[in-house]
Amino acid sequence: MVASGDNRRALIAGNWKMNLDHLQSIALVQKLAWTLKDRNFQSDHVEVAIFPPFTDLRSVQTLIAADKLEFSLGGQDLSPHDSGAHTGDISGAFLSALACDYVLVGHSERRAHHGEDDEVCVAKVQAALRHSLTPVLCVGETAEDLETVGQSAVPVAQLGAVLREISAEADIVVAYEPVWAIGSGTPATAEQAQEVCAVLRDTIRDVHGDAQADRTRILYGGSVKSSNIAGFLRGADVDGALVGGASLDAEEFAAIAQFEKHVTID
Ligand code: PGA
Predict the structure, then answer these.
(1) Predicted confidence (pLDDT) per residue in 113-154, tens digit
(2) CATH number of the domain to which 245 belongs
(3) Which helix (H) or strand (E) holds 127?
């Protein structure tokens, strides 16, 4: 049973944030690979992606290639620029050269702690696309937004701002992450997640048409665990999850990747 839309392969993405050095990253990826193998994980309709810190990427890339692991790889951020005098920034070209498939853009922690607004997110999404990376655009409302304008207004505006500046064919992933649910242990309900993801899909439909709306994967993120993943993935418009804290535990993240098991036994 596939919980997401017919044409959309589910994506379970682990955002490690600023955790684990390059040696620890190797240990976690090896443990995750063994755990999934032990549990006879089938990757044909679930893609597993990991987003380690920049300094871990080369080690993880080498391990994935050497052991032929079926994990996709992504960076947690990128510069809007391609090269030059931008001390401390990382070019999408460098991520591409390390065989990254994805890059997060506009995570709420980047928006809140680094002042990244929609304009910056547009430039970063464009930079990702220039370097053949699929941007995972994170959108979501704060607790205050929820009170003042409701749950969909802010994420819809954040997504619309980016969609209007990219081509209708550009391949992106959208992650709906209510800021109040991130790291709080209080996830959105499955119904709330489905409702907002459906509105986000309608936004894609309005700006870029049916084909793009039907093929774009929309994830839910915010306090996802193995005990609640199945509920989220039952939503017709929820195609996967962006997982923070729980992605640092191999057993827990493997159980999340196996959400289909939870869906069928419920
Ligand atoms: P969390 O983080 O799963 O720890 O809530 C999600 C995220 O920030 O992407």
Answers:
(1) 999 999 999 999 999 999 999 999 999 999 999 999 999 999
(2) 3.20.20.70
(3) helix 118-130
Q: Which atom of ligand 1 is nearest to the CA of 181?
A: 5
> For residue 13, what are its two tokens?
């993405």
Q: How many domains does the chain have?
A: 1
User: Could you give the CA distance from residue 258 to residue 242 in angstroms, rounded to a whole number?
Assistant: 14
What distance lies between CA 19 and its chain's CA centroid?
17
Known catalytic residue at 252? no
Q: What is the span of the domain harbouring residue 234?
A: 10-261
Percent with pLDDT over 70 in the chain:
96
Supply the residue whose CA is at minimum distance from atom 2 of ligand 1.
Answer: 244
Nearest CA to ligand 1 atom 9: 244
Active site residue 107: yes
Domain-located, residue 3: no
Let me know: does 140 contact 177? Beta carbons within 8 Å: yes
- Is the model's pLDDT at 84 over the cut of 50? yes
Cβ of 160 less than 6 Å from ligand 1: no
158 contacts 203 by C-beta, under 8 angstroms: no
266 in a domain, yes or no? Answer: no
